[in-house]
Amino acid sequence: MDEELVEYKNIFSRVGMSYITDHIGAPYKKRVAEKTGILINTSAQPNSNPHFGTITTLMCVFAIAEELRDYFEKPVRIVFDMLENAADRKFQGVKEKVVKGKKVQYQISLADSEDEYGVSVLDRKMESFYQIFDFLKRKTKISMEIRSYAECQKDPSFRSALLQIYNRMEEFKGIISIDYNGLRLRFPCPECKWIDKKGVFTETVSGLEEGIVFKSFCPDHGAHTAKLSKKSDDYFDTNTPLRALAKAMSLIEFEKRENWVPIMIDGRDWTGRWDRHIHMKGLDLLGYRTSEFPERIFTPNVTDYLGAKLSKSLYVDDFYDYLPAGFADMNNFLEIYGWEGMEILWKEIRKWATDPAYIERDAYTVKYFELLLSGNLDNSEIKG
Ligand SMILES: [Zn+2]
């Protein structure tokens, strides 16, 4: 069919929460009433320049923050968890070494890696994140702190969660390590910073309720140890389920201590089974009631023409040459559409926060944004 003959209708039907409430803040009225303000937490791995999906998620975070601030007339701040612990797959990749007769995979984090010019991979990738943060801070006057993973894992509640999970491995195994045995708790060689990816050589040297000493092995520098306790400064990397659970526990303890309501905002791929199985069952096992859990808001995904979510890991592998120019990389987007294009996007996404019918939608396609940016998207209409 000739594409010009297709008529696109910009219709929003009421789905999920948008059936029962017309404001995104309404479900949190009671909880927020008793508190000083709202702390919004979000995160991203800075393993590439932001692609279109990352930009829209960050815009959703600021748009929701502004909407909640105006609705509750209370302070709202954002903490962005920069996951610089993510493995650098692009420049260094995973190294396979034969150690003590076994093939073992070693990885290095973005924070400890350099590109081909000797520049920190993390610093280079964060440049465009800073640009978009500055733009959004100017638009909303909402304050945002960047928290490194290194800081996040130092939090005593985060470490307490790791200790509890390690000491009660049998109970937690089916939740956070479904298909393999053991915890993905790893720590780098202090000399070269490479990490035994799957913890093949990670073992416990001594274990007590209040602290555990682990030993690992670097093929170039030999054995090294690290202590996990609430107070130790030793760095521990965690995989996603373990980090998700430990972070949620530290947000619950933060609310008790500081009297701010924590709201986690993430893309919609973290809702559904992940939220129920990892987040809810895990926090339940850690002894929390659902009323204590952080609130969670999930933002619409951006998908390609066939409905696949734009993925950072595929983007790192230069997968997206079939997307419209500028959609895979924020720097290219700015070259093509300029900051005027960013303004158009912001205006659209700011609107999403004003009615749950927009934000509860599962996804927006690349086509939606092509029509928006070319001025060919008709005014939206909410039905039902
Ligand atoms: Zn080493």
Task: Measure the end-to-end span.
Answer: 30 Å
Tell me the total number of β-strands: 17
Detail the poorly predicted runs: none
Classified by CATH, the class is Alpha Beta
Task: State the domain count.
Answer: 1
Strand content: 15-25%
Question: Would you kindly provide a written description of the structure presented here, covering whatever features stand out?
Answer:
With 384 residues, the protein is of the alpha/beta class. It has twelve helices and 17 strands. It has a single domain, classed as 3-Layer(aba) Sandwich (Rossmann fold), CATH 3.40.50. Helices cover 37% and strands 22% of the residues. Helix 2 packs parallel to helix 10. It is globular and about 65 Å long. The site of zinc ion has 7 residues, from loops.
